[in-house]
């Protein structure tokens, strides 16, 4: 349980014609999507863009939060776009696509229902690849400060003087 | 002689570790005019240094040197390299602890007599009369400024407590309150009152919670009798040809090996490192490790019957606001075998931030069953179970010669199997904890598995008979008169209470004994 540093930077580039709520490959070397008002794109240099797009879908299927946009999942897995990590990721995603072909789809991202994708993931749950991605997401996704407000979590309060005068005992429904 | 002390000064008491045991002992001795060198593996962090961010703080404070695990406990599967969540810093785990400060119940000092012969358990009575502890407990409560003792007010209850309290009362529980806490409810002893900031586990940035790091340690240093050497990692204890402890070998902050001579050595590195150090100090005269003629060094490892219960509601709770451990139910702490187990347990509120909730709610869990729980994080309340676990000879710290640390020494393997009594107690506590939340309209409850251990106990236990344990009633080793154990590893049994207050009380008591024995030239 070591904390994986978030050395990844968020690249928000304009991407014309992005589709809402889904990440997809735009041209060579980019994965893009749309999050609320802002479009975003991720530049990949070691992974195939299709691989990154699939990895983002896989990340969402492992920890699906419908109120969390793809960009946060993209940030969470961006670190795998490195010379060292890329070969293992390519192999893992290839295996995932192979599993999708086994149930009649060309690729993992073509499997329409989350339930069916989750079944494919469950079939590889004990693989080193799955555990690498899942384990990395625990910090990669939930330790993003920008994600916390989506869950209502307020983070530190010391700078505001704590909650002594700001609702530490404020509960009105009991 | 005044600090700093010379490496060749063989009149000093060397204390290894500066937490609730070692930190308090070092100060208490220094106050009595005894020269003390305290060796601390970690660095010095004060309130201004603490980080109110769970993972960042973990990186700053946690003891993350390699360790291994074995046994059937789930921690060995979920956190195989992190059996314990404890601190490497001046002040030790008193930076991290939640502050719960409870006295043992009288019968818990006499577990063997009270519980009888529990199969598979290596139960023993403490060689201490509970009445003798009354005064030491009072002094410990004064030192820590424990709320609800000596007319100090309780802390106000936060939202997490209010949910917990309402459910508890609906179930008919009567001993429900905001705890006896070493967190100031009003200014006390130059420390401010709690500002309900949360992040008690990450070090209190107000200093409202007692920690040895900013109380006992600097006060001991102010006497001129205590020298704390930080970032000094002890490798082994040496002895002379008569078999008395004579020096301590350590690696200093610069990476250089040093040897400090000693008149007395006190080991307070917690229940994992203390036995590891004694075992790693094996010599020709003591081939099984120091103070180990009983073979009990490292055995009887206890970690309390723990677990958590979280629950979601249809409305917000925001449990992270305010004191992390904000209240307690004590009705189940009694010994009542009618429930299907011996000993008892406490239920104490607990809150984790979103990052740690993701890591600890259901380690390894994923998919919608997992994420739909976190989706309602804002509507969650939580509590922790602290119950007495059974000492078992086979639950133990051993040296794992296949894995070495940064100094080339074998690491500790922490082996733990639940005793049937532990399992029965945990299941009872899960049921009661879930019932508490159901009584306030929980929409979903989560019987959450134990985290890496914070209460590590028993691996150098006290015994009246040298055959049964490692140290006597003063924490003095049966085998080597000038070698003491000063931390929770001297616990004969674990009781159902959070252990810090008892560790502090025993350290105050031990300091009196050591000072008196030094005065009588017995050491």
Automatic annotation (TrEMBL), chain A:
Transmembrane segments: none
Signal peptide positions on this chain: 1-37
Highest rank taxon of the organism: Bacteria
Keywords for this protein: Signal
Matching InterPro entries: TAT_signal, TAT_signal_bac_arc
Identification of the protein by name: Secreted protein
Automatic annotation (TrEMBL), chain B:
Keyword field: FAD, Flavoprotein, Oxidoreductase
Pfam families (alphabetical): GMC_oxred_C, GMC_oxred_N
Classification via Gene3D superfamilies: FAD/NAD(P)-binding domain (3.50.50.60)
Signal peptide: none
GO molecular function, one term: flavin adenine dinucleotide binding
InterPro entries listed in its UniProt record: FAD/NAD-bd_sf, GMC_OxRdtase_N, GMC_OxRtase_C
Chain ranges of the Glucose-methanol-choline oxidoreductase N-terminal domain: 88-305
All residue ranges annotated as the Glucose-methanol-choline oxidoreductase C-terminal domain in the record: 391-507
Domain of life: Bacteria
Assigned protein family: Belongs to the GMC oxidoreductase family.
Protein name per the record: Choline dehydrogenase-like flavoprotein
């Amino acid at each position: 349980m070591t904390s994986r540093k978030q050395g990844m930077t968020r690249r928000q580039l304009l991407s014309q014609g992005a589709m809402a709520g889904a990440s997809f490959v735009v041209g060579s070397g980019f994965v893009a999507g749309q999050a609320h008002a802002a479009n975003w794109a991720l530049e990949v240099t070691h992974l195939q863009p299709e691989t990154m797009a699939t990895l983002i879908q896989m990340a969402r299927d492992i920890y699906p939060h419908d109120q969390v946009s793809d960009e946060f999942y993209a940030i969470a897995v961006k670190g795998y776009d490195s010379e060292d990590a890329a070969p293992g990721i390519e192999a893992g995603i290839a295996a995932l696509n192979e599993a999708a072909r086994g149930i009649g789809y060309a690729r993992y991202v073509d499997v329409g229902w989350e339930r069916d994708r989750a079944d494919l993931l469950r079939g590889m749950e004990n693989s080193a690849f799955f555990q690498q991605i899942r384990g990395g997401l625990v910090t990669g996704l939930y330790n993003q400060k920008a994600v916390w407000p989506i869950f209502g979590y307020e983070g530190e309060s010391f700078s505001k003087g704590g909650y002594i005068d700001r609702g530490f005992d404020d509960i009105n429904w009991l | 002689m005044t600090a700093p002390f010379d490496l060749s000064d063989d009149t000093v008491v060397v204390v290894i570790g500066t937490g609730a045991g070692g930190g308090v002992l070092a100060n208490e001795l220094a106050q009595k005019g005894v020269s003390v060198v305290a060796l601390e593996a970690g660095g010095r962090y004060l309130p201004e240094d603490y980080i109110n961010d769970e993972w960042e703080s973990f990186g700053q404070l946690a003891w993350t040197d390699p360790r291994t695990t074995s046994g059937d406990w789930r921690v060995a599967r979920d956190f195989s390299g992190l059996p314990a969540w404890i601190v490497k810093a001046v002040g030790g785990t008193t930076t991290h602890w939640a502050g719960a400060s409870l006295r043992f119940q009288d019968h818990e000092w006499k577990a063997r007599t009270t519980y009888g012969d529990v199969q598979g358990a290596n139960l023993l009575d403490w060689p201490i009369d509970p009445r003798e502890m009354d005064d030491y407990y009072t002094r410990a409560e004064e030192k820590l400024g424990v709320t609800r003792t000596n007319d100090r007010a309780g802390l106000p209850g936060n939202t997490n407590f209010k949910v917990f309290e309402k459910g508890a009362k609906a179930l008919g529980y009567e001993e429900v309150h905001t705890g006896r806490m070493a967190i100031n409810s009003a200014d006390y002893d130059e420390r401010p009152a709690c500002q309900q900031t949360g992040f008690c586990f990450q070090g209190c940035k107000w200093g409202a919670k007692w920690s040895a790091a900013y109380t006992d340690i600097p006060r001991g240093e102010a006497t001129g009798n205590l020298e704390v050497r930080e970032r000094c990692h002890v490798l082994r204890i040496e002895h002379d040809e008569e078999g008395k402890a004579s020096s301590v070998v350590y690696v200093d902050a610069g990476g250089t090996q040093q040897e400090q001579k000693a008149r007395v050595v006190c080991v307070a590195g917690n229940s994992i490192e203390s036995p590891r150090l004694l075992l790693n100090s094996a010599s020709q005269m003591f081939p099984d490790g120091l103070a180990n003629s009983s073979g009990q060094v490292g055995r009887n490892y206890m970690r309390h019957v723990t677990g958590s219960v979280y629950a979601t509601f249809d409305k917000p709770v925001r449990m992270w606001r305010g004191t992390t451990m904000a209240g307690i139910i004590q009705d189940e702490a009694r010994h009542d075998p009618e429930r299907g187990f011996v000993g008892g347990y406490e239920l104490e509120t607990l809150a984790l931030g979103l990052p740690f909730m993701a890591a600890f709610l259901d380690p390894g869990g994923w998919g919608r069953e997992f994420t739909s729980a976190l989706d309602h994080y804002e509507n969650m309340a939580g509590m922790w179970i602290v119950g007495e676990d059974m000492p078992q000879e086979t639950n133990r710290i051993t040296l794992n010669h296949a894995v070495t640390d940064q100094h080339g020494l074998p690491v500790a393997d922490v082996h733990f199997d639940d005793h049937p009594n532990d399992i029965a107690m945990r299941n009872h506590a899960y049921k009661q904890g879930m019932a508490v939340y159901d009584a306030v309209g929980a929409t979903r409850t989560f019987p959450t598995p134990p985290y890496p251990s914070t209460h590590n106990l028993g691996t150098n236990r006290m015994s009246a008979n040298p055959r049964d344990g490692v140290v006597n009633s003063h924490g003095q080793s049966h085998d080597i008169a000038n070698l003491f154990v000063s931390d929770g590893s001297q616990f004969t049994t674990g009781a159902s209470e959070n252990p810090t207050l008892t560790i502090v009380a025993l350290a105050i008591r031990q300091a009196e004994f050591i000072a008196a024995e030094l005065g009588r030239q017995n050491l």
